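Exercise 3.2. Students should predict the tertiary structure of the chain below and write it as structure tokens, then compare their answer with the key that follows.

Predict this chain's 3D structure.
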Amino acid sequence: MPTTHLLYLHGFRSSPQSHKAQLMQAHVRAMYPTVHWWCPQLPPSPRAAAALIESGTTDWPRERMAVVGSSLGGYYATWWAERTGARAALLNPAVDPARDLAAAIGEQTAWHDPTQHFFFRPEYIAELRALATGPLSQPERTFALIAQGDEVLDWREMAARYRGATLRVLPGGDHALSGFATHLGAVCDFLQLAR
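Answer key:
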């Protein structure tokens, strides 16, 4: 069935104002105007983020929803897709954020507005671990766009984590996926967005 409801989950220190989120939103509105788009501002607490995602999608039709997740949002998207059976498109997805973000405990600034501050608490590491999922139960429902030039995450670890899924591994590139616009079509096609 075509996807009528699309969730976009941004990464750590990011927001709905991220370049990829804005590109995706504009593309969906222009090409798939009937698709319901939701890109919430995720709170720093992983447990609170999961609760927001669940409450905001409770009444969505299970067989007609999909998710796009970038970096930490890709980790959340994997968790949500495993719970719901939704299709997922992951953009340089975080594989083990509990490990990687242990060094980020403390005060942080928002990427798109340095005047906004938040505190990444030590207990958030355990909250991240609680959202971990095992091997993909339906790898054919997952697409991962992975840049070998990612300066934040190891592309080999991402490719291994999502083995069995549809992988598009890009030579070069960066964590921000600066060339994301050229892959919008492939992402939307995989998600089977309703026209």
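Discussion points: Residues 19-31 form the longest helix (13 residues). Residues 149 and 172 are 4 Å apart (CA to CA).
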